Each structure stands twice: as C-alpha cells, then as structure tokens.
Amino acid sequence: MLGSRVERLLINGSRLSPLHYAALSGNKELISLLLEAQAAVDIKDHKGMRPLHYAAWQGKTEPMKMLLKAGSSVNGQSDEGQIPLHLSAQHGHYDGSEMLLQHQSNPCISDSAGKTPLDLACEFGRVGVVQLLLSSNMCAAMLEPKPSDPNGVSPLHLAAKNGHIDVIRLLIQAGIDINRQSESGTALHQAALCGKTEVVRLLLDVRVRNTLCQTALDIVNQFTTTQASREIKQLLRDASAAMQVRALKDYCNNYDLTSLNIKAGDIITVYRPTNSPSYMTV
C-alpha cells in the first residue's frame, strides 16, 4: 500500500512524511489522496509532531478539519509536550484555535516548559486568541497556579514581561490574581525589571513585595538609568509617597469651612512630602 511505503520517508534529512508536508503547505487535495491511501493520520516526525501540529502551526483550518475528521488526536503531544493548540495559540490563529477547542482540545495541558496555550498566547500578545481562551468553560482552571510549574509564572507575568497591555487588561477582567508570586516577584516586579512603563502604570502597587522583600522600585534601582527606568522609578516613588488609611473617629472643624469633614470608617489618601520620612499632609 502507498501508506506503508511513504509513512517513514526521509526528505531533506528530516523525518517528515508526505502527510506532514501536505499539512504544512495546506494542500487539501494531497491530504485527501494520502488519507484515502491509508496514510497514518497521526504519524510522528523526528520531534514527535503529527500532521495536525503542522496544520495548526500554519493556521490551515481546512486541512485541520480533514485531519480531525480522519481521527487525528486533538490532544496528542509532541516530544516537547505541545498539543496542536499550543502552536495555534502561539501564532495567533483564532479560527484554528476555535476549531481545536470545539473538538475538545484541553487548554490546560502544559508543555515541557510548563506553559499552556494561554501562556503562549499571552507571552506573544495574541489578543484575539487570549480572549477566545478566556471565554471558554476552562477559563477558571487556566488562571489557577499550575502544580507542574515550581517557578509560579502566570500568564500575567508573561504578558507583563513583554508589555502586552491589552492582554493584561483581559487577564485582570477575567479575575487573575495580580499579586501571584513567581521567583522574581509579581507581574509588577517583572514589568519594572523589563522596563515596561505602561504596564507598571497599570499594575502599580509598590506595597507588594517579592520573596526577597524587594519592592519593584528596589529592583529597578539595580539597573542603569535608561529613559524607561527613569520614568518607572518616578512612578514608583510617586506611588510610594501615598498611602490609604481609615479614619478611626469623626472629625469636623466648625471654625474652618475649607477643612475636611471626616466620618469614622472613611478612607483617606495620605501623601508624604518628597524629602520627608513621615506622612504629613492630607
């Protein structure tokens, strides 16, 4: 049979079958011909990649549909632990990712680097795919810490590191814990470390400290005075010069109509003068 002769054909030194090449190029006629000739739909190449991996990588939805209909494993992992959804999500293929999810692809599967499809979509700023994944019924599970990842890196850390503001907003709206700690600290620490000024503005909360008891400002102060680091340092200083307190009792000055009227329980923002060690003005 044709399938038995071609399935392990070596081409240009790579262990790719004709079905791999057909999936990679999106040649529907050739895919149909090979499948009719009983080519193995889930044959692996030298990296454990199946034809469906290649079709998903290229965002070829019609070839993907043909391979899935022929019985390709939607959650089959490569040697690096990636399922087709990893590749589709990383490269921002919305339609392909949607098709895989409709065929019960599991977005919570981690690859050998500990990353899920959502992690990769966030890392590479694939806003549409991030929105798609977060709208799935697996959203809550994807946002939970992964037991398989001892470093504690979340999708928010990856988006913050690379400055993907729109992705960060989606994650926050979805309810991700912005204070989750990795070895480097929170997403704010990561953004400060990488000089992502706009991300720092969005995540600013200098009272969150990493495992070394460093604030985001402590981390930024370790690095050279680039324009980005200067702006971030000023943002962090400004934020650290303010704190919120709760009034313990009512206060009213009847002799000064411009003074504050405060009731017990009110939240007050207290500002510290730039060169003062204590909080003095309200």
UniProtKB/TrEMBL annotation:
Residues 240-282 form the SH3 domain. InterPro entries: ANKS1/Caskin (IPR033635), Ankyrin_rpt (IPR002110), Ankyrin_rpt-contain_sf (IPR036770), SH3-like_dom_sf (IPR036028), SH3_domain (IPR001452). PANTHER family: ANKYRIN REPEAT AND STERILE ALPHA MOTIF DOMAIN-CONTAINING PROTEIN 1, CASKIN-1 ISOFORM X1. This is SH3 domain-containing protein. SMART domains: ANK. Pfam families: Ank, Ank_2. Keywords: ANK repeat, Repeat, SH3 domain. It comes from the Eukaryota.
